[in-house]
Specification:
This protein is an alpha+beta fold and 91 residues long. 25% of the residues lie in helices and 40% in strands. The protein has a single domain, classed as Alpha-Beta Plaits. A five-stranded mixed sheet has the order 4-1-3-2-5, covered by helices on one side. Strand 2 and strand 3 form a beta hairpin.
Length: 91
């Protein structure tokens, strides 16, 4: 079990990135949250089994149709188990 704290840069707002990330995370059983940032990026925290978290992080490198991902910064962190679900967070 592990945790990934991710920042996604590029054209990632206004293209259903958050909703698509939520759907992808839920499909893999990954917990955490995703939100838009004021600078136009998207931030997310994913927790779960290593292979499923890897799959969601790799999906973030492409994103949904309409997105143009320039860069993804990932910080691998200690699993905390603090989430019951995956949700869209707001500022």
């Amino acid at each position: 079990m592990l945790r990934a704290h991710v920042y996604i840069y590029g054209r990632v707002q206004g293209v259903f990135f958050r909703a698509s990330a939520r759907d992808k995370a839920q499909a893999f059983g990954v917990k955490g949250w995703v939100k838009n940032c004021l600078d136009g990026s998207v931030e997310a925290v994913f927790e779960g089994e290593k292979d499923t978290v890897d799959k969601v992080v790799n999906w973030c490198k492409k994103g949904p149709a309409g997105a143009y991902v320039e860069r993804v910064d990932v910080s691998w962190e200690k699993y905390l188990g603090e989430f019951d679900e995956f949700a869209i967070a707001y500022y």
